[in-house]
Specification:
The complex is a heterodimer of chains A (361) and B (310).
Chain A: E1 2-6, H1 12-36, H2 41-49, H3 51-54, H4 59-85, H5 93-109, H6 119-145, H7 149-169, H8 205-223, H9 225-235, H10 237-242, H11 247-271, H12 285-295, H13 300-324, H14 328-350, E2 351-355
Antiparallel strand pairs in A: 1-2
Helix pairs in contact in A: 1-2, 1-14, 2-13, 4-8, 4-9, 4-11, 4-12, 4-13, 5-6, 5-7, 5-11, 5-12, 6-7, 6-11, 8-9, 8-13, 12-13, 12-14, 13-14
Chain B: H1 8-34, H2 42-60, H3 63-87, H4 92-111, H5 136-140, H6 145-163, H7 165-175, H8 177-182, H9 187-213, H10 225-235, H11 240-262, H12 269-289, H13 291-297
Classes of the chains: A mainly alpha (361), B mainly alpha (310).
């Protein structure tokens, strides 16, 4: 008979090993899925995980894309992980990402066509503030009225999407765009653009910020009182209260930080790779970042690696779509499966499997 | 703007249609939460039900079979959640989110060849005399069967939870799983059944969208309906009749804003479309402000992992 025995503390070995195992299991399940769709499973897996980095023809194009896609994912996931650790569930990062982009781009476009070097920093601050303010809505409602932050932050995603549709055909529409929806292209305006910093790497200011955020979060969690309070609250909210942690303050900080990072990610995206505010600007990074946060075990370094891996599946998915005609939804499903396998295998780090009869106490 | 173009009788009739998907999903989730399981994957189960039902109905030509398959699809996805949270003891919040992401991907994959097809029509009830009554006939007696089924379901859940032995056991498991376990009830088995019921209801709700309300398949067509259903369960403070009230209230707002759009109101379309979400937030705030009352009725073991130590 098989039974589970709770470990006194989660196993460190399994905590590190399960993400690897989950990725492998997802590859196997994915291969079966692709075979069921009538594609060569091995070739599909190779196209997704190997070709974007090492294919002789495509790699030169797709390798820089890795950082372009990983940047926002890491930046958002780092913010989310702080809250998730403390049991504060901000799942509306997509909305904060959109609002950050709108506020940042709006702040910049207000000064068009100035060429001042202050424009871009101003946009970054406005973007982060926009995301922060959007995240403050669930935070204040939770601390003031005890409203569930999961539902409120998610509802606000739909509100943000509607605001995006409204401003891209109204307030921020390009006056020289001949009536088409969408703002001015920020890439073509040097003072507001977020260019590739080193040619051929995909590195832009957003990626730099993401790397800084990883270091910042690592230091915060391991060397700072606030990080300790976050971890303590996640493990035992009651003990945290006795230890003098102020839950209200923690909620405001965690949601605010994750909102600001998501907003900044939105701004870097709109000023860089996306180029303009348009109706289809929201691309689901805010939701994929939830998977990235869990895949990285809510640990800053883990999130860095998970963000790169998830970016790889995006690029590989596009490549597989192009080369093998694999539907884009299959990649979405693939990413969802990854989260499932990961959560399922979490059991190994929290429980020990015992085979045989239970001992009589 | 021409407000006289809005016909109150049609408004009420279409309100019931707009509310039914959310009502179905919410009453299912209520049962799951009463057993102590917080399944945040309602959106994923709804959209899976929407596509399973749509495919089955298009392939067989029978909407009834479509609904049956939608319930099966929703329940199957819910059992995946059950497997993860009950046997592998994963975090319910994270697993529910995963279920939503997974369901959205799965439905998009299944549905890619079904975009732009029209669903076979579901007949509306047509009683000889009753349906022809001036006002009441249109409001009460000329809907499709699913509208009535959803109302029956609410009544059944209410009566079942309140008066039946099974309902009592379900509530006991939700209030205190350790005590229920000590009394010899199979906590995990009961919860799995509640989860599957919730999934089947969410699936039916999704299929109602794709087969009757819209009736077409588009990717991500639930547009947050599953999340609104979750909010309505909180709004209802876990009482079946209040779920009905909440769903109809929400349906009313949806229909009203659509009518205002059609009547050419001076408010931009985007602001009207975001109003249901804003009102959901507002309702959540009002409900949780009287927290003492609302929290009293929440199942005490909601969202907690059960692991029998012996």
């Amino acid at each position: 008979m098989i039974r589970l025995e709770k470990r006194p503390t989660p196993s460190r070995f399994w905590a590190g090993f399960t993400p690897v195992l989950a990725v492998l299991a997802t590859m196997v399940a994915g291969a079966i899925l692709f075979a069921a769709l009538g594609k060569d499973p091995l070739e599909s897996i190779r196209t997704i995980f190997w070709d974007p980095l090492f294919h002789e023809n495509f790699a030169a194009y797709s390798r820089p894309q890795l950082l372009v896609k990983a940047g926002p994912l890491i930046l958002i996931a780092i913010g989310l992980s702080l809250g998730f650790r403390a049991g504060i569930w901000n799942i509306g990062a997509e909305g904060q990402y959109i609002m950050g982009a709108i506020c940042g781009a709006g702040a910049g476009l207000a000064f068009h066509p100035s060429e001042s070097f202050l424009i871009f920093p101003l946009m970054v601050v406005a973007g982060a503030l926009g995301g922060w303010a959007w995240a403050m809505i669930p935070a204040v409602l939770k601390t003031r009225f005890g409203t569930n932050e999961i539902l409120v932050s998610l509802m606000l995603v739909y509100v943000a999407e509607n605001i995006l549709a409204s401003v891209s055909s109204g307030l921020l529409r390009n006056p020289e765009g001949m009536g088409f929806p969408g703002s001015r292209n920020l890439q073509q305006w040097a003072a507001a653009a977020n260019p590739e910093l080193i040619a051929g790497t995909g590195m832009h200011w957003g990626v730099v910020t993401a790397f800084i955020a990883v270091i910042f979060a690592y230091v915060l969690l391991n060397r700072h009182m606030l990080g300790f309070q976050i971890r303590l609250t996640g493990q035992s909210p009651r003990a945290a209260r006795f230890a003098g942690v102020n839950p209200t303050r923690l909620i405001l900080i965690c949601l605010g930080l994750s909102g600001a990072l998501a907003g900044a990610a939105g701004l870097f995206e709109v000023a860089g790779p996306a180029g303009q505010i348009s109706i289809d600007f929201g691309s689901g990074y805010g939701f994929t970042a939830i998977i990235v946060a869990f895949l990285g075990r809510l640990h800053p370094v883990g999130i860095l690696l998970a963000g790169l891996l998830m970016a790889l599946t995006y690029i590989g998915g596009e490549l597989a779509q192009l080369m093998l005609g694999l539907p884009s939804a299959a990649i979405q499903l693939f990413q969802g499966m990854l989260l499932f396998f990961l959560l399922a295998m979490d059991m190994f780090s929290n429980y020990r499997i015992r085979i045989g009869k239970p001992e009589v106490a | 703007m021409d407000l006289s173009a809005i016909n109150p009788v049609l408004l009420i009739a279409s309100l019931m249609v707009a509310a039914t998907p959310i009502l179905l999903a919410a009453i299912g989730e209520l049962v799951a939460e009463k057993s102590g399981v917080l399944n945040l994957g309602v959106e994923g189960m709804m959209i899976t039900g929407a596509i399973c039902g749509f495919v089955a109905a298009v392939e067989t030509g029978s909407p009834a079979l479509g609904f049956a398959f939608a319930a099966l699809g929703g329940a199957a996805l819910a059992l995946l959640f059950g497997l993860l949270t009950q046997y592998l003891m994963s975090n319910q919040v994270a697993t529910g989110l995963g279920l939503t992401l997974f369901g959205l991907g799965l439905s998009a994959l299944i549905g890619q060849d079904y975009v732009g097809i029209k669903a076979p029509a579901t007949p509306r009830l047509d009683l000889p005399v009753l349906s022809d009554l001036p006002v009441l006939g249109r409001i009460l007696f000329s809907h499709d069967l699913m509208v009535y089924l959803s109302l029956v379901l609410v009544a059944a859940v209410w009566a079942g939870l309140k008066y039946s032995r099974a309902g009592l056991i379900l509530r006991a498991v939700g209030e205190n799983h350790e005590a229920a376990h000590a009394l010899g009830y199979k906590v995990i088995r009961i919860r799995l059944m509640a989860i599957a019921f919730g999934g089947a209801c969410a699936g039916l709700g999704g299929a109602y969208l794709s087969l009757i309300r819209v009736p077409q398949w588009t990717e991500g067509m639930t547009e947050g309906a599953g999340w609104i259903a979750l909010a309505i369960v909180v709004f209802a403070s876990w009482r079946p009749w209040r779920v009905l009230l909440g769903a109809y209230l929400f349906g009313g707002i949806t229909v009203l804003q659509l009518n205002l759009q059609a009547a050419g109101a001076a408010i931009p379309v985007e602001y009207l479309s975001m109003s249901p979400y804003l009102i959901t937030i507002l309702v959540l705030v009002i409900m949780s402000a009287g927290r003492a009352r609302a929290a009293l009725n929440a199942p005490a073991s909601l969202g907690r992992v059960f692991h029998a130590s012996n």
